[in-house]
């Protein structure tokens, strides 16, 4: 029986012919990493391969690892298996992995989105026979508005809060979402303050992308200085002592999960903005069609529902379990605990 080019086991997605794993979740010898989020880039591997723009990100998070950087579309061969990295559009440095052996081509997306956010290298369609896709938001209910509309909504919210003399606290993951928000916040409204986790990660990325100036919140930051201004913080900061020191304030969250009305209520968020670094339902379907793939493997998200729908469309579709968690994986509690100053009264 022919062994599939990529198989799923208890360590990750494995290419036996090359003895290489894609985004493994247990320590192994050789790992190809799609991007820097903690559920895809883990500590403990002997050798890492990733796009060169992702190297500063994973070194910031993992320390001095042994890592090799590749260019977009650069072919590298391991034991006669051809690999190349292609833009995934998810966050800065995020890749899809193309794997080719004896005329058979597989593509592993990692996490991806097809809307060009003006920061990450835009998503690129890669033709293949088998497509491994996330389906974090693989339900018809998820249908994103254009980014420009959401950013305008956020800036209007900030301006309204300023007029009422309140601080605006906007939650977004420290890698990816925070920088996407920061890039388009209107500094004519006021100043942008940051939590330590977001400030430190943004400083890693500033050599690659222009971002507006920010001011790190420290123990010396006065509560009065925040009034009328906006604070970018990781979701794990919500409900903390750090937040309560900033009253009066209004909270907002930028996430695909804000498409569900109950999500904002359950998380005790004042305002939800539907902004995701993942594909919505339509983008997933369009992406799969564009690859020309006959076989589709669905991972992390609404896998069963999405795969069933794909089979109804005529695809050879199935699901595989992974330890990737999509947008729910980026809470970064450890970073919050390590980098949380208390605001002065």
From TrEMBL:
Broad EC category: hydrolase
Molecular function via GO: exonuclease activity; ligase activity
UniProt keyword Ligase present: yes
Residue ranges, compositional bias (Basic and acidic residues): 324-336
EC number annotated for this UniProt entry: 3.1.-.-
The entry's keywords: Exonuclease, Hydrolase, Ligase, Nuclease
Origin superkingdom: Bacteria
Stretches for region Disordered: 324-345
Record-given protein name: Ligase-associated DNA damage response exonuclease
